[in-house]
Design brief:
By secondary structure, the chain is an all-beta fold. Among the domains are: about 145-250; about 265-355. About 0% of the residues lie in helices and about 20% in strands. The chain has no helices and 21 strands.
């Protein structure tokens, strides 16, 4: 909080220092991974040579800041930086002031934000860049959102793709508006996602045959899926383990299958169901239900529209006739709970035998 007129020396790594008032002496932070804040005036020279994380929040830095090596993370919020060189794979934000010098980001994997004016900017290959203000020269040929962390030998991303390739992908065809992630392993076979607005993740293993024919599918395949058919629109399905049989989710379902589900039928529209732990042998949720089943539910009937119900444990018989919002959190309710009027908002944490 007060004035330090002596010399402060922090020569080693991982220092965390705050200078709230005026520091007229020389501060030397020569090694990597320093975290320093200068809230007031620093007239001396600050040298942060390798992989620093620093903020200049309030005052002017008149000296030259040199960040020559990769992976710098620097913020210049208020004042002018006369010379800045960020040659390879930088993550930099220029929030308030003008950078009049030439910024060259020639290689892939740049992530740069320019809120103010950038006089010359070259982003040659499938960059992820945000330009909030004026950009005089920008070349982004086809609306791509792509990250290439490793080597991609052959990649065709013709129209509005959102793709991440962390490892090597030998052959990949994503024709129309796909959202796909290939994170860990090599996909040597041809993956065909023919229709628009598919959302698919292939995280770990090889998917030999995958057919997602209709629009707006949201599917995750973490392990091996030999044959999977999701024929209708707006499905939201997760398969974390192996699903050998065919699962049919006909209309606007939102379902998660973390373990093995042998036979599951969710016939009507706008169901929101999670099967987290155990096997559900028979479940019928006919009209616009929002239900969670964490454990085993043998038979559950929620017949009317717009119910919002949570069943953490086993519920044998429950009737909620009209637009109820009810939570059954902890205990077992064996009797019939009748809430006859519309738009009730009820919480049952323990056992309620009869409530009107």
């Amino acid at each position: 909080n007060n004035t330090a007129t002596t010399t402060t020396t922090l020569p080693l790594q991982q220092q965390h220092c705050h200078y709230n008032n005026t520091s007229t002496t020389t501060t030397t932070l020569p090694l990597q991974q320093q975290h320093c804040h200068y809230n007031n005036t620093s007239t001396t020279t600050t040298t942060l040579p390798l992989q620093q994380h620093f903020h200049y929040n309030n005052n002017t830095a008149t000296t030259t800041t040199t960040l020559p090596l990769q992976q710098q993370h620097c913020h210049y919020n208020n004042n002018t930086a006369t010379t800045t060189t960020l040659p390879l794979q930088q993550h930099c934000h220029y929030n308030n002031n003008t950078a009049t010098t030439t910024t060259t980001l020639p290689l892939q994997q740049q992530h740069c934000h320019y809120n103010n004016t950038a006089t010359t900017t070259t982003l040659p290959l499938q960059q992820h860049c945000h330009y909030n203000n004026t950009v005089t020269t920008t070349t982004l040929p086809l609306q791509q959102h792509c990250h290439y962390n490793n080597t991609a030998t052959t990649t065709t991303l013709p129209l509005q793709q959102h793709c991440h390739y962390n490892n090597t992908a030998t052959t990949t065809t994503l024709p129309l508006q796909q959202h796909c992630h290939y994170n860990n392993n090599t996909a040597t076979t041809t993956t065909t996602l023919p229709l628009q607005q598919q959302h698919c993740h292939y995280n770990n293993n090889t998917a030999t045959t995958t057919t997602l024919p209709l629009q707006q599918q949201h599917c995750h395949y973490n392990n091996t899926a030999t044959t999977t058919t999701l024929p209708l629109q707006q499905q939201h399905c997760h398969y974390n383990n192996t699903a050998t049989t065919t699962t049919t989710l006909p209309l606007q379902q939102h379902c998660h299958y973390n373990n093995t589900a042998t036979t599951t039928t969710l016939p009507l529209q706008q169901q929101h169901c999670h099967y987290n732990n155990n096997t559900a042998t028979t479940t019928t949720l006919p009209l616009q239900q929002h239900c969670h089943y964490n454990n085993t539910a043998t038979t559950t009937t929620l017949p009317l529209q717009q119910q919002h119900c949570h069943y953490n444990n086993t519920v044998t018989t429950t009737t909620l006739p009209l637009q109820q919002h009810c939570h059954y959190n902890n205990n077992t309710v064996t009797t019939t709970t009748t809430l006859p009027l519309q738009q009730q908002h009820c919480h049952y944490n323990n056992t309620a035998t009869t409530t009107t």
